[in-house]
């Protein structure tokens, strides 16, 4: 299922620096969350997650699931 991202409000982490290695997220009106590479603003691709998928991702971050060894 695709999403119309026209008018989406994209956010980047306040910890982000201007070194072109960041992602941005947009919380869509239907509960889904879009994520894109901050270098690809405009017509670049975006991943779109359901609210449940996003919650699982957030839980993994909090639990340290994605820490490098």
Automatic annotation (TrEMBL):
A Pfam family reported for this protein in Swiss-Prot or TrEMBL: DUF397
All copies of domain DUF397, residue ranges: 8-61
InterPro entries in the record: DUF397
Protein name, entry field: DUF397 domain-containing protein
């Amino acid at each position: 299922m695709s999403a119309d991202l026209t008018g989406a409000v994209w956010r980047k982490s306040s910890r982000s620096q201007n070194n072109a290695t960041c992602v941005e997220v947009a919380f869509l009106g239907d509960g889904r969350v879009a994520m894109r590479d901050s270098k690809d603003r405009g017509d670049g691709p975006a991943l779109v997650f359901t609210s449940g998928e996003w919650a699982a991702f957030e839980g993994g971050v909090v639990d340290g699931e994605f820490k490098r060894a």
